[in-house]
UniProtKB/TrEMBL annotation:
Pfam families hit by this protein: RibD_C (PF01872)
Protein name: Dihydrofolate reductase family protein
Origin superkingdom: Bacteria
All copies of domain Bacterial bifunctional deaminase-reductase C-terminal, residue ranges: 2-182
Organism: Streptomyces violaceorubidus
Length: 190
């Protein structure tokens, strides 16, 4: 069974919306506008590219990343890595042609089936709504969180507010950086 890893830049109050400057959010770009850049705080991002064997995205994140990420020097491993987009509305004609193999998954059942295939870790970037659904369905195995020392108030959140049983997490790696960012890696305890 493959490991499904959710990776996120997240504010202390749980917001994951527009960390890189995506339009339409009042605090857009909060990761670089409001916190000093320290390269060592982002080491996990390079490690994720080296360890992941597939990329899973929701439709909104796919539509935001696919015009930009294929040509970015920061994401070379993601160029050729198989990609999966979870969407009920995206059509094959909507997929970009310069970003490698991309498969549309129409349901969480298809994500669960993908996890049962042979291969290494699958990483989820962005995709706030998808992350909430995956978590509620018990499909996420690990969280890679870079927690920023910010309170952003309104915005898309990583975790759902669904009334459900408590989910225990085990901290397997952590570090605090001089700029206040905390790296927290949690395994989901089943």
């Amino acid at each position: 069974m493959r490991t499904l890893i959710s990776t996120a830049f997240i504010s202390l109050d749980g917001v994951v919306e527009a960390p890189g400057g995506e339009p339409g959010y009042r605090n857009s770009g909060w990761t670089f506008k409001l916190v000093d850049f320290l390269p060592e705080a982002y080491e996990i991002k390079g490690r994720e590219q080296g360890e992941a064997t597939a990329l899973l995205l929701g439709r909104v994140s796919y539509e935001a990343f696919s015009p930009v990420w294929p040509d970015m020097a920061e994401f070379p491993e993601y160029r050729t890595m198989p990609k999966y987009v979870v969407s009920t509305t995206l059509a094959e004609d909507d997929l970009v042609t310069n970003w490698g193999e991309t498969t549309i998954l129409r349901s969480l059942d298809e994500v669960a089936a993908l996890k049962e295939t042979e291969g290494g870790p699958i990483i989820v970037h962005g995709s706030a709504a998808l992350n909430r659904s995956l978590s509620d369905a018990g499909l996420i195995d690990r969280y890679h969180l870079l927690v920023f020392p910010l309170l952003l108030g309104a915005g898309k959140r990583l975790f759902s507010d669904t009334d459900k049983d408590a989910q225990k997490l085990r901290l397997v790696e952590h570090e605090v950086y001089a700029n206040g960012i905390q790296k927290n890696v949690f395994d989901v305890v089943r």
